Amino acid sequence: MRVFGIRLPAMSSLILWGMIWEIVGRSGLTFFVPPLSEVLVTLYSVLGTPAFQKALMETAYAFFMGVLFSVAIGIPTGILMGKNRLIDELLLPWVNIFLSAPLTALVPVLMVLFGFGMKSIVITTTLFAIWIIILNSRAGVLQINRSLVEMARCFGASPLAAFTKVYFWAALPEILGGVRIGVIRAVKGVIIGQLLISIVGFGALFELYSNNFLMAHFWAVLIVLFGMAFTISEFLAYLERRISYYAAKR
Amino acid sequence: MDMSPTRKNVVEASGFKVENAVSTRKISKNYGPVEALRNLSLDFPKGQLTSLLGPSGCGKTTLLKIIAGLLEPTSGEVEVNGRAVTGPGPDRAFVFQDFALLPWASVLRNVAFGLELRGVAKSEREAVAEKYIRDVGLAGFEKNYPHELSGGMRQRVGLARALAVDSEVLLMDEPFSAVDEQTRRKFQEDLLNLVQTENKTFIFVTHSIEEAVYVSDQIAILLPRPSRVSEIIRPAGFRSKGAENIRRDLEYLDIVDRIWASLRTYVE
Ligand SMILES: Nc1ncnc2c1ncn2[C@@H]1O[C@H](COP(=O)(O)OP(=O)(O)OP(=O)(O)O)[C@@H](O)[C@H]1O
Ligand SMILES: [Mg+2]
């Protein structure tokens, strides 16, 4: 974007929104919105506290475990569904149901089944992320050029070799697209899980802050979470762009 | 003209009985209600190039894929070197009409891919691949990716990959369709050399009558669906006259005319 002939760097509109936030905060309109500067100062002080670091570690752990399970289970399942009619018929209805289901409602059930701890949060995260990864991997495999499949057969590829040397790579652009959306959903899953279970990670922290009306702390942690989710999603979008050179030419 | 090509008998001018590398017996293929091939029998002599020529949609690709073992015939049998075909095998290699290259792999890896699938060690298969990349005139492009090549160059990568596995039978589905006329002529000459130097059996699908007559030892003309062999033509006289002279040869021009006469009835 250009203003008065000067090129503005990307996302410079954020500065404008930050200024509005600051003004609203200083006007004292509501205790709910403290000035941005106060939030940033709090953010800086909060970052070093053991409570925050513990929450961060726990969240990161739950998040990565959830993403790991969704990717490790989701991609092979999706590829299998794309390659095998029977498995596809069996699983596709369930994948579609869970993809659109309000998973938040399931969290209390998970708590009963798996306890009030980390396990339930990891499973919640996985449940949020896995379905779109399965569905995209399946779609990726279904669009593989038929000649590539025939080529693999013709040159004597074993099923495993065809899987690892052809199908996976041919479906990779769609798979990565699914992983990116899955990861964004995993961020939601890990936070919702923690909020509902609320004795570990940021759930506990939010509970603490809101009970004590520490709004600046609340916003500070929120900014950190938003920033992390955005960074992860941008990184995956970058990976996607790097392989898009062949996506159009398969 | 007394040298009208012999029909249906696979006897060379010298009188030797030629062995068949591939023979199809009474092949029928139905796609649901569509009858693509009906009772098609055809022999492919060893070490020779046979072209399949016929109107679009008559089942040439279908026949090639049945020979490759990629498609199952509804009835009938394919034999390669006397053994019945049940699936793809290392004795046959396929050159795909749409190249079927791995877009994420370099030219070198693509050409070596058939050997990679057979478990040949990396240094060994890359040495073989490099040789065939040179043979098809792509030296210097080993590190490039398919999307960086022109259509004709990609087609040559597909050809080199099929040559690199050193199969006895090469199945080529319109392998020169994506190149301009000049390159096409160059490829046809290369192909003639290849038939002479590599002791392989070539089965070649084309839409071009001139191309078929130019490169083939035997031309099978297929009828429209359901497809059978209507005629087998074996150009005999001009093969020895050298690549440059063939196109001016009387027999060559005669055969081209004859094929056109029998095919034109199928063109509205
Ligand atoms: N998978 C399929 N399902 C149904 N019908 C098919 C299928 N593949 C081919 N056919 C039909 O079989 C017939 C022969 O097809 P084929 O591709 O073998 O023709 P072709 O001779 O190679 O044509 P062209 O010269 O245009 O490439 C066509 O009429 C086509 O409609
Ligand atoms: Mg065809």
Automatic annotation (TrEMBL), chain A:
<feature type="transmembrane region" description="Helical">
    <location>
        <begin position="216"/>
        <end position="239"/>
    </location>
</feature>
<dbReference type="InterPro" id="IPR000515">
    <property type="entry name" value="MetI-like"/>
</dbReference>
<keyword id="KW-1003">Cell membrane</keyword>
<keyword id="KW-0812">Transmembrane</keyword>
<feature type="transmembrane region" description="Helical">
    <location>
        <begin position="6"/>
        <end position="24"/>
    </location>
</feature>
<feature type="transmembrane region" description="Helical">
    <location>
        <begin position="190"/>
        <end position="210"/>
    </location>
</feature>
<feature type="transmembrane region" description="Helical">
    <location>
        <begin position="60"/>
        <end position="82"/>
    </location>
</feature>
<feature type="transmembrane region" description="Helical">
    <location>
        <begin position="94"/>
        <end position="115"/>
    </location>
</feature>
<keyword id="KW-0472">Membrane</keyword>
<keyword id="KW-1133">Transmembrane helix</keyword>
<protein>
    <submittedName>
        <fullName>ABC transporter permease subunit</fullName>
    </submittedName>
</protein>
<dbReference type="GO" id="GO:0005886">
    <property type="term" value="C:plasma membrane"/>
</dbReference>
<feature type="transmembrane region" description="Helical">
    <location>
        <begin position="31"/>
        <end position="48"/>
    </location>
</feature>
<comment type="similarity">
    <text>Belongs to the binding-protein-dependent transport system permease family.</text>
</comment>
<feature type="domain" description="ABC transmembrane type-1">
    <location>
        <begin position="56"/>
        <end position="234"/>
    </location>
</feature>
<dbReference type="Pfam" id="PF00528">
    <property type="entry name" value="BPD_transp_1"/>
</dbReference>
<feature type="transmembrane region" description="Helical">
    <location>
        <begin position="121"/>
        <end position="141"/>
    </location>
</feature>
<keyword id="KW-0813">Transport</keyword>
<dbReference type="GO" id="GO:0055085">
    <property type="term" value="P:transmembrane transport"/>
</dbReference>
<dbReference type="InterPro" id="IPR035906">
    <property type="entry name" value="MetI-like_sf"/>
</dbReference>
